[in-house]
Structure formats: structure tokens, C-alpha cells
Amino acid sequence: xxxxxSHVTPPTGLEQPDPRRWWALAVLGLTNLVVVLDxxxxxxxxPAAQADLGMADSQRQWVITAYALAFGALLLxxxxxxxxxxxxxxxxxxxxxxxxxxVWGGLAQSGGELIAARAVQGAFAAMLAPAALAMLTVxxxxxxxxxxxxxxxxxxxxxxxxxxxxxxxxLTQYADWRWCLLVNIFFVAIGLLGGWKLLVxxxxxxxxxxxxxxxxxVTLALASLVYGFARAEHGWxxxxxxxxxxxxxxxxxxxxxSQTRIGNPLxxxxxxxxxxxxxxxxxxxxxxxxxxxxxxxxxFHFQIVLGMSPVMAGVANIAxxxxxxxxxxxxxxxxxxxxxxxxxxxxxxLGASGMFxxxxxxxxxxxxxxxxxxxxxxxxxxxxxxxxxxxxxxxGVDPHDAGVASALASASLNIGGSIGxxxxxxxxxxxxxxxxxxxADMMTAFTDGYSIxxxxxxxxxxxxxxICGVLIRGSREDLAPASDMVVMH
Length: 489
Description:
By secondary structure, this protein is mainly alpha-helical. Helix content is 78%, strand content 0%. Residues 24-476 form the Major facilitator superfamily (MFS) profile domain.
């Protein structure tokens, strides 16, 4: 779930194609892979990590949330750092920090230590991802080679999450859950060596002021909201739940106000006030909530209730990704024929039907009859969403704001995932407690808890469909970004 930095014009010294650019693409693609797969690789390992470190059910969600929240909240700042401080320098520092945090997490002796390491991982990933894409825009400035390079980058991003689930299952089952983090050492070593040899320093000219106040305010706002939703498992009316949610809303309002008062804001509000782009960012957040939040509980169902091995749980999850990849060409044709508005209403509706189907699971149910049809429906829906989603994030945007708009789309995905996990965990915990109080056995209670998260995910997808139906207007041609803008898949 990576994100680009600001739109840049290639420096004069790099107008001739770099002869090492394809090797550099391999290094940057590897960076994209490690950033994306680390959002999912520990999902399969969570039951084993929870047992080993003695984490409570409410604590384990933060292993995923901490990474996604830090990544999403700091992406815009990471892009600015890469632009102003230097892309190669930011890339190398990000690699070192990401590797160190991975080792820390792999050697963690407590749940709190693991969560802290994951947050640091996310912070350095927010430096890595925009630096990598900014260098890609310099190496492949225009033409067919640029299209190929971004297609490769997009394919890696699209398959990285599924690869993370599978790799996480293999490492957990045949080595140890800790290797889901320690494996990053190998990726980092290749990235550092390749980056040192192949990448060229570049930075953006012009204003280089950092919006530190905006960064701190929006990060605290998002953290407060996520923590408030997480505390809701103890009751929506509890003082700390209401307090953190209220603080998050106030801090978010302060952030928005601050963005209107400074000359070089972290997030120019004109980027989010455009209705079509607002719809794109909203559906990104919805997709993040579903893919990180609801699918996490499906992974738990596979291992804890159905008794699948970590490897088989990873394989079972890949069905959805396979459907997305197989139907992408059809979705592209539908977009051309029906236009983005129809496609972005139909996609969430199909995805919601898949989540509602999954909510019918039982403790003794079959994967083939209770799970697979729902994953197919969800994959069909997400395929329709993914095809136009990123381009709409750049609809009508000025070239100067293209990097910010594209970064915000990726940030929305991660922030939506963070909030989604917190909300789904609160719903899961409440339903689990009610089910046990009603006399259900533990496996039935687990299943009831998972089911309510799938229902909630379906409802969120339907809300996303309504938002897209109301806000998206115009033809496909009108909504396409300019050909020279950076689009990250």
C-alpha cells in the first residue's frame, strides 16, 4: 500500500535515460514489495505471536494497526522529506530504519514491544515509499518505458498483499512467526546495496518548509480516533471512549483550520474539496477498512475455528486476489462502456454481497460452500473498484498537486484500515461477550464475533457505493488525470 511523492520534472542532468534504469527499477520494485507485504505478512502469524507473547485479543489488532496508522499518517510528510532532503538519501535512511525496526520486532519479548516496533516500521515505510516512486518518475520521465515501469510497480503493489499472506503462512509454519519480520533483513540488504550502486540523488527545487504543526496535529488526531474506537470494546458510552473520540475530532478540526492559515500546507484543502476526488478518497478508506479489518478476522476464522495451518490459511486468502487479477481486464472494459460512476457503485455493492455471504459462517462449515463464494463476490467487487479508483484521485487536479493527491489516496487506504480494525474489534468483542453470555460454546462465540465484522464491512461498502453515486459526475474522459501525472496503483 505504497504512495508516491510530489509530481516532479526530471532534472536537467537526467534528461538522457540512465543506462542502469531497469536494474534500478528492480530495486525500487523490491522496496514497493516489502512495504506492501509488511501490511499483511504478520496477519497469518498473529495467532502464533499472540500465544507466544501472551497478548489479549484487544491488543493483537495493534500489531496491524500500528503499522498502517504510522504509514498512513506520515506519508505526506515522507513525500516532503524525500523532495526537500533528497530522494536517494531518504530512501537509504528509510531502508536502514525499516530494517532495524524489523529486527526489533522479530526479537520482541512482549506485545507492547512488538507493537512499538511495528509503528516504527510504518514510520520508515512512509519515507521509503514516496522516495522510491519519486526516483521512478526521474528515471522513467516519459514515453512507453514510463508506462512499462509504472505497470511493473502497480503489479507488485497489487500482488504484494497476497504474497505477504502466503509468505507469512510459510514462515510461521516451517520456521517461526518471528521470521515474518526478520525476513525483511534480506530485502533491506538488497535494497541498500542496489540503492547505493544504482540510484542517483535528486531533490525538488523551490519552497522547502515543513508543516510540522500540521503533521503532529493530524497524527495525534488519527491516533486518538483509532484508540477511541478501540476502547469502544469496553462500551461506547465509557468516558475514555468518548474522550478520545472527541479529542480526535477536535484535533482534526484544528488540523483543517491550520491548513488554511499557512503558505505551504501539508495537505492543500483544494485537493480534498473536489467532489470526485472526495469520493475516491472515501472509497479508498472503505477498501482499506475491509481488506485490513474484516479480512483479518477471516484469517482468524481459518486458523482458530476451521483449524487450517498457517500455510493453508494463506492459500485460502489468495482466492480473492486471484479473482481480482483474472477479472481486471473485464473491469477495464466495463469502465470504458459504463463510466466510473456506475462501476464505482456496482463494485461496492458486489463486494458488500460477498461480505454478507461470509457473515453466514458456522463453526463446522466448509470453506468451499461458506467462504469461497463470498471471496469470489468480494474479488469481483474489488476488481471494479481498483480499476478507476486511483485515477479518480487525480481527477481535475493541478499537476502541482498530483503527488499530494496520489499520496493521500494511499494514506486514505491505510488510515481507513486502521480505523476499520479498531471498529471491527469493538464489534467483535461485544458480540463475543454476548454470545458467551447466551450459553454458546467458545468456537460458536468466535464465529458469531467474526460474523458481525463481516456484516459491518458489508454496510461500510454500501455506504461507499452511496457516496460514489452522489459525488461522482462526468464522463470517463472528463475524469481522467492528465497524461503526465504520476499515478500509483
